[in-house]
Every structure is written in structure tokens, then in C-alpha cells.
Amino acid sequence: xxxxxxxxxxxxxxxxxxxxxIPEPRVPIQxxxxxxxxxxLAAGFLAGPRVDSLGIAGPDAxxxxxxxxxxxxxxxxxxxxxxxTRPDHWQAACAAAAKWPxxxxxxxxxxxxxxxxxxxxxxxxxxxxxxEIAGVRTRQPGFDVPVYALPPDLVRARPGDAPPNPNGTxxxxxxxxxxxxxxxxxxxxxxxxxxxxxGLEIAWVADRLEMFxxxxxxxxxxxxxxGSVIRIGYAGQNGHPYTGIGGVMxxxxxxxxxxxxxxxxxxxxxxxxxxxxxxxxxxxRENKSFVFFRELTGDGPLGALGxxxxxxxxxxxxxxxxxLGAPVWLANMDRAEANxxxxxxxxxxxxxxxxxxxxxxxxxxxARLIAGGMSARGEALLLxxxxxxxxxxxx
Length: 395
Hints:
Number of helices: 12
CATH topology of the largest domain: Barwin-like endoglucanases
Largest sheet: 6 strands, mixed, barrel
Radius of gyration: 22 Å
Distance between the termini: 36 Å
Shape: globular
CATH class of the largest domain: Mainly Beta
Strand order of the largest sheet: 3-16-13-15-14-17
CATH superfamily of the largest domain: RlpA-like domain
Structural class: alpha+beta
């Protein structure tokens, strides 16, 4: 958050002094050696400093309160897969938020929340934004790249037709003509026309590379030559794992500061693809994950909670480690813009694991610049309803 969290750059250094292991916790503070934690509860927790000691800026708290309030209808009804809370644990804070003046937002967070460090508390944050690219509703010359709606034959396997995913859900795919469950078409197959002629096109864009990055962002705006705008948002994904092409480029020695290398930012990756069209096209196909869209109405792109995500207030997180709708405090980040109070309102295919976040920066050229270059490490605290840590510790 630009300019908002700088006053609190030293706040998390208080954790060692102020934090304490919850008495007789039901889980170890760290999972056993060699075991990778799959939820926040399994990763372990440590009590953090009081909310009023964090140094949260007033405007930061006010924006977070507004976003928290919008999340409450989902927060108080959906299952929290992190293992930390139940829907009813959030009811008191949400009832208060409904009438709480944003001018006193700092007092709201101090009165209703306590802080916790999950795992080691070391955070990694990237950025995303709402891109705007050239696009039209009906195909015309110069606009030949389709934007697809969610295909009706993309389904989850019936029990017994395929092994379940590690989290217990059934995999996504399709049933072929023989009735066998098979993986859904991957990015390369879709690029080659696997979905052409099925009536799934909701729009057409001018640039496949721009569309590739819009899929990574998960939502965006399509602007036609006449100035009209279509807003599209995430509707589903084809079930294939996400592969970050920046990581592939790094493994191949294409990113860096040496001769012939490109920067690791989104802008650097796009430059490589444009300057090496054949290799770049093949590189995009290595990310077999493909995102489908729906047209959106309203004042902002929708996150995983079904509420608008807001610039410098909303963050994507892994719901196995952060209750969606919960406040998150980032501090000591090596990109100062990422410091501050955020609300976890979204998820992402690449946003997995403990204290992994994706900060949202809105729309426009500055949002594209900040998000495209955001790669920040620091520390994170999770804000939970007061009493949560005592409950988890059995005290």
C-alpha cells in the first residue's frame, strides 16, 4: 500500500518479544521434519503483538474496514478450510462492522481482532491488476483471438472414475465419446482449435499475449475501437496445473541482467515473447492451465468471495492458510508498496502455501507497472477474531 505502511516497518520485530506459544496447543508450532503442512492449523501458530501496536495508518484501516464489511456475508457462512475459524466466530466483528464509522476504523480492528503468526511468518507477495486490452464483442478484422466462456462439458469426475485430488476433491476434466473420464483440453489444444465452433466465444481480442496475461490476472477490461468496454471475470479453469513461464525462463537462463537476458518482471517476459515469436508461442503453451471467463457488471472485478476486489485493499491468498475475508498485515516487505493492512478476498492458481499473497493494484498504467514488478519478501500477521487463539490452544 503506497505510503501507508511505512510507519510500521519495525512493527513485526516485536513478535519475538510480544508473541507467545499458545498454552498446550493442539498442533506443534512447526510440522514434523519432512512433513509439508496443508493447512494453517497444521503449520502452527504464534500469538503476535496487539493490533494497536502495529502502527496501522488511518486511511489504510478505513479502506480495509470497507472491504472487510463487503466480505462479511461470505465470511459468516462459508467453511474456513484453514482450520482456524468457524463462520460463527466472525459474527460479532461483522455485526459491528456493519455500523462502524470508517473514521474510527483503527479502533474497530483493535477492539475485535488479535494477531497471529502462521508458521514462520515469512511472507512472499506478488501483484496483480485489472488489465485493459483491445477487444470486441463480435469478431472483426484484427480481433481474432477468442475469449471463451466456461464449457458445459468441463466437469468433475464422478467418484470411482478418477483418483481424487490431494485435497479430496475430484479432478476436473471431461467425458469422451466412449464415456471415459479424461483430462480437459490443455492450452495448446485450445489454441489449436479444440473449442472452435462450439458457441463459447463471448468476445474477441487483438493480441494473444495480452490475453495470456489477462488470464493470469483473472479479470480485465476489453476496450473496443469505439471506446465501449466489456468487463470480464474468472469463470473457471481447465483443471491443468498452472506453470509460471517466468520460472521456466529463469531455469533456462533467459532472465537476469547479463547479455541477452530479460528482466524477471511481466514487462521483461512480454518483451522476450515479442522479440522471439516462435519460441515465445511455444513458451506460452508450456502453461497448460487455461482460464474461462464470464461478462461482469458492477464497479469492480470480483474475487473468489464474489465481492469486488479493491485497489490497495484486496489480496489473494491460499484459503488453506488464510480464512477468505480475514485481514492480513504485511510489514518489513522489501517493496514498501506492499506494506499495510489487506483483506484476503481472492485466490489464484499460483498463490499457494503459507503466507503467500498477491496484492491487487486496480486498473491503469501505474497498476500494471506496480503489479508487473511486484516481488516482495517480508513478514505477515493474520488478524483473527479475539478469542480464536485461546480456543485453538484449548485454554
